[in-house]
Specification:
single chain; 9 helices; Tetracycline Repressor, domain 2; elongated
């Protein structure tokens, strides 16, 4: 892609229209939405997306921060700021599942749908590192059930992502939150 300063005004405008459309469409429907839908929302051709971004992965890389990265990183940072380990685990699981429910692109990230996207994979690696940290703290504090591993946090998120992405019927928010409580009761040791 040419440097923005060397682009004609109409080309710069198209780039901004495509980015804005991608942010909206990806946030509403996920990163796997047909590029034709992004092009239609931007009122450009699909070829223009390829010319300006090189395809889906280039477009994802260009907008990932606005679509999902800020929210995912914020969930981890917010959890880190909570004093009690049990409360930290609960807040993290609830916030992650809330994002999965309300922001379809989160599920595409967690499922690593686009492994050629370096920013997307960086989010996955950040989550893996956070899971390592959270599980170590949880076992040290004695609040996690025996045998819970960082991989269990990842598997729970992936299972949820698959269920939300492929379910014929989206669960009601009440049912979904009730199931979140079941998960927390399963991974956390009973409190005294």
């Amino acid at each position: 892609m040419a440097a923005p300063a060397t682009l004609r005004a109409d080309a710069r405008r198209n780039i901004e229209l495509i980015r804005a459309a991608a942010v909206q469409v990806f946030r509403e429907r996920g990163l796997s939405v047909p590029l034709e839908d992004v092009a239609a929302a931007a009122r450009v051709s699909k070829a223009t997306i390829f010319n300006r971004f090189g395809g889906r992965v280039g477009l994802i890389d260009s907008v990932i921060d606005e679509v999902v990265a800020v929210e995912l990183l914020s969930v981890m940072e917010d959890a880190r700021s909570i004093q009690g380990v049990r409360e930290r685990v609960h807040a993290y699981v609830r916030a992650t599942r809330k994002l999965q429910y309300s922001l379809p692109a989160v599920n595409d990230v967690l499922l690593q749908e686009f492994p050629d996207s370096e920013p997307l994979m960086a989010l996955c690696h950040a989550a893996d590192a956070f899971h390592d940290e959270l599980v170590a703290e949880g076992h040290t504090a004695g609040i996690l059930a025996d045998g819970v591993t960082p991989g269990d946090f990842q598997a729970l998120a992936i299972d949820n992502a698959l269920a939300l992405k492929h379910a014929r019927v989206h669960p009601s928010r009440g049912d979904y939150d009730r199931r979140t409580a079941y998960i927390l009761n399963g991974i956390c040791a009973p409190s005294d």
